[in-house]
Amino acid sequence: MVVTAVRLLPRNPTQSSLTMLFSAIAALALGIGATAQVTYQNSSGTRLRVDNGTYGPEIEEVHYYYDQWPIGIAAASDGRIFTTYTRGDYRYTLGVVVNQTAEEAYPSLELNLPVDQLNTSWNGIDFGSGNSSAFISVQAVYVTPESNATGRPETLWAIDTGRPTIHNGQGEPSMPYAQPGGPKLVAISLANNTIYQTFTFPSNVHYPSSYLNDLRFDLRPNVTGTSGKGIAYLVDSSDDGRLGFIMVDLGTGESWRRLDQDRSVLRGQNDVPSYVGHPFYFEQVGRPSRWLLEGLDGIQITPDGERIYYSPLTSKRLYSVPTANLRERDSNPAAELNAHSNVSDHGQRGGDANGFEGDNNGLVYQLMPESNAVYFYDSTPSGNGKTNPFVRDPRILWPDGASVGADGYIYLNINQLYYQPDWNFGVDSREHPGAILRCKLPNGGRKITSLFP
Ligand SMILES: *[C@@H]1O[C@H](CO)[C@@H](O)[C@H](O)[C@H]1NC(C)=O
Ligand SMILES: *[C@@H]1O[C@H](CO)[C@@H](O)[C@H](O)[C@H]1NC(C)=O
Ligand SMILES: *[C@@H]1O[C@H](CO)[C@@H](O)[C@H](O)[C@H]1NC(C)=O
Ligand SMILES: *[C@@H]1O[C@H](CO)[C@@H](O)[C@H](O)[C@H]1NC(C)=O
Ligand SMILES: *[C@@H]1O[C@H](CO)[C@@H](O)[C@H](O)[C@H]1NC(C)=O
Ligand SMILES: *[C@@H]1O[C@H](CO)[C@@H](O)[C@H](O)[C@H]1NC(C)=O
Ligand SMILES: *[C@@H]1O[C@H](CO)[C@@H](O)[C@H](O)[C@H]1NC(C)=O
Ligand SMILES: *[C@@H]1O[C@H](CO)[C@@H](O)[C@H](O)[C@H]1NC(C)=O
């Protein structure tokens, strides 16, 4: 092929014969017409169809992040928006939006362990702090409305992973193992802004390599297999360990695992997504290029509490399982087998998904960093069985967390995660500000309240 192509040119091309050739091509191009589109990557004047990167309802810009880059988000009934930040060297890990351009530590800065106390080491192995009364690194938050049945005020629930990201002298990132006490589920009253309950985990439920990533709740007293004070469904998304669900009985504090290392919760193997048109490899200082490793990530419970939809971060597939199977205890020898055989595989959805949210119409929203979009799956009997488009916008540069407010809007945290230094050989190409965007839910959708009588 190469030999043939060379023969099309003069055998000994001189400077002047090449110049003549290019002049002729240029003249030909101009001859087609002075209005021809000859601009370089500028399609604004084209007659061709272009992808404008946009569909769905109008998007509003609600908040701008100029300081710490956020992860999780939760909206309260009074309009307050809570945000989380994984640590690091950040001053605080749980915050509240105070005006359009700033957030502050919530409920107080003093609850955050100082950066030099986030990790410790034992026989040369790094461990996160085991302090159960201070914040180490909060990943996600969820607001449950005031619940008379359980006597709980409107509550901000936070999961602390107990595993900060630390960097050695060469700037190589690593995540210390968790020790009991560090990883915890914390309940904060939004009426008096005080932590009123903390749940920690035994080491056979939360492993040293576990990583708590998301949380959902059912506070109905009549939920089977609980003490009647409600249950939390948590996600272990570990990059370096075993994946699965962790449940907490909010009356007794007992916790247990289900779908441990089930095929449906595992990370996709050697997954290469595309972000803003770039194939993405996971690149950390001190290591060769690899692949993202995160497994089970997004979860959402249906408004009747019967089913949880979920997906690993590095997978295109959507799954669901009856919550009854997650509530089965280890005392039932068939608990794990039954849970596995009751998993539904809803097939591929058209991309990897990050966090999930849901509304009272049974729509399961899935955040889609590959296409700067939010998709939804209709979990009701009238659903079409497909994952469907909801909203897409060039500003949705890695939608990380989402929260449906009492006002019928879905709030999206935008954090440009794929540009962060720990994924790009230490180069930070995020650009301030990050953002909270919001848009109205379809069909008058609202926050789920049916699970919080
Ligand atoms: C793109 O082309 C249009 C005319 O088609 C011009 O007005 C505009 O300035 C160009 N934009 C850039 C960034 O070059
Ligand atoms: C973008 O393109 C879609 C599909 O062609 C169209 O429906 C929509 O109105 C366009 N949006 C904007 C902002 O131009
Ligand atoms: C927003 O809040 C921050 C922190 O309290 C403050 O420094 C800043 O002046 C406020 N900005 C505006 C525009 O009110
Ligand atoms: C925490 O981790 C950093 C980075 O590896 C290390 O320099 C520091 O000594 C560790 N702190 C403790 C108390 O072990
Ligand atoms: C945990 O951290 C808090 C806040 O820094 C501190 O007041 C408390 O003494 C610590 N507890 C232990 C057991 O170290
Ligand atoms: C705050 O509210 C919680 C939950 O209702 C309650 O248990 C706690 O005693 C209250 N704390 C303070 C300081 O008022
Ligand atoms: C459980 O309680 C909820 C609300 O408290 C109620 O709507 C539901 O019908 C009850 N379910 C059963 C099976 O009793
Ligand atoms: C599967 O889930 C359904 C509820 O959706 C339940 O009735 C059934 O017993 C479960 N099967 C197993 C094997 O656990």
Secondary structure layout:
Layout lengths: L1 H6 L7 H17 L28 E6 L7 E3 L5 E4 L9 E6 L2 E4 L13 E4 L2 E4 L9 E7 L10 E6 L5 E2 L5 E2 L9 E6 L4 E7 L11 E7 L12 E6 L7 E6 L5 E4 L15 E2 L2 E2 L16 E6 L5 E6 L4 E6 H5 L7 H7 L2 E5 L7 E3 L4 E6 L4 E6 L8 E6 L6 E6 L4 E6 L19 E7 L13
Antiparallel strand pairs: 1-30, 2-3, 3-4, 4-5, 6-7, 8-9, 9-12, 10-11, 12-13, 14-15, 15-16, 16-17, 18-19, 20-21, 21-22, 22-23, 24-25, 25-26, 26-27, 28-29, 29-30
The structure holds 2-acetamido-2-deoxy-beta-D-glucopyranose (8 copies).
One 2-acetamido-2-deoxy-beta-D-glucopyranose (NAG) binds next to helix 3 and helix 4.
Question: How is this structure best described in words?
Answer:
It is found in: Secreted. One of its GO terms (cellular component) is extracellular region. With 453 residues, the chain is mainly β. It has a single domain, classed as TolB, C-terminal domain (Neuraminidase, 6 Propeller). It has 4 helices and 30 strands. The protein has helices at 2-7, 15-31, 323-327, 335-341; strands spanning 60-65, 73-75, 81-84, 94-99, 102-105, 119-122, 125-128, 138-144, 155-160, 166-167, 173-174, 184-189, 194-200, 212-218, 231-236, 244-249, 255-258, 274-275, 278-279, 296-301, 307-312, 317-322, 344-348, 356-358, 363-368, 373-378, 387-392, 399-404, 409-414, 434-440. The chain has a 4-stranded antiparallel beta sheet with strand order 1-30-29-28, with no helix packed on it. It has a 4-stranded antiparallel beta sheet with strand order 2-3-4-5, with no helix packed on it. Strands 8-9-12-13 form a 4-stranded antiparallel beta sheet, with no helix packed on it. Strand 24 and strand 25 form a beta hairpin. The site of one 2-acetamido-2-deoxy-beta-D-glucopyranose (NAG) has 6 residues, from strand 6.
